[in-house]
Amino acid sequence: MTIDLQRAVEDFWAARGRGEYFPAGYFDRLSLDEAYRIQLALIDRRCAAGEKQIGWKVGLTSKAIQQQFGFHEPAFGCILETRPSGHAFAAGELIRPGFETEICVRLGRGLAGEVSLEEVKAAVAAVYPSFEIIETRGDPGQIALMLADNAQQHSVILGDPVAPTPTLQLDQVEARVELNGSVVASGVGSAALDHPLNSVAWLTHKLGEYGRRLRAGELVMTGSLVRQFPLAPGDHARANFSGIGTVEVLLRRDEQGNVTHE
């Protein structure tokens, strides 16, 4: 049974204003296509209200994440904010937060439609070690509602960029993840659809279904190399990416936090 999309967008927008990100009336009602259309319409409204979309995320790309959520295909969301490595969020700033350990790329040229891995490689201008900061704003079992609510996205933490080179094989990059000084996971770039840039190619094709394309200057988060971890007050997460660098983020125990926007 299809829904009235215009009505659904209004309902989700009103619910968001009330701090209700997963409207209960839409549980088990949305198709994935409807969820994406709601997501994009809500992002357009947020941008009209003053925010700025600066890129895209591809999620659910690794077996570890797919098993964690019981969902076995990639998904996309929009990036509206970045913070520098070492940023500290205030304790009450985030809703049930967590982090994912990802290779992020910035595009030097636009991409549209069906593209090859070589075309994606030629379009990449910079590579970053990164964390995606996610929020669990509702029942994670409601995958369609999660996608409509921008796929858990809150922010992206970026380390220093490096230039792509022929010797930088992103599928072989190893990420070692520490939480409060203890190693909790490690993963390699090939965990994301066999190669992180396959995520970009998937995204380019998928966005075409919605009349969108990737633009020069945009960021693309290519998917977590390990499972998603929760972030509790007092936590300090750090990841070292071989050949790329490090990224870290903190969640304070109190309400003091430095706020910066790109």
Short summary of the structure?
The protein is α+β, with helices and mostly antiparallel strands and 262 residues long. Helix content is 24%, strand content 30%. The model is unreliable at 257-262 (pLDDT under 50).
Description:
With about 260 residues, the protein is α+β, with helices and mostly antiparallel strands. It has one domain (about 50-250): Fumarylacetoacetate hydrolase, domain 2 (Alpha-Beta Complex). Helices cover about 25% and strands about 30% of the residues. The protein contains six helices and 13 strands. The strands form two sheets. Strands 1, 2, 3, 5, 6, 7, 10 and 11 form an eight-stranded mixed β-sheet that branches. It has a five-stranded mixed β-sheet with strand order 4-13-12-8-9, with no helix packed on it. Strand 12 and strand 13 (about 245-250) form a beta hairpin. Helix 1 (about 5-15) packs across helix 2. The longest helix is centred in the N-terminal third of the chain and has 17 residues, at about 30-50.
User: Which architecture does the CATH hierarchy give at level 2?
Assistant: Alpha-Beta Complex
Helix tally equals 6
CATH class: Alpha Beta
Look up the CATH topology. Answer: Fumarylacetoacetate hydrolase, domain 2
Mind summarizing the main beta sheet?
Answer: 8 strands, mixed
Radius of gyration: 17 Å
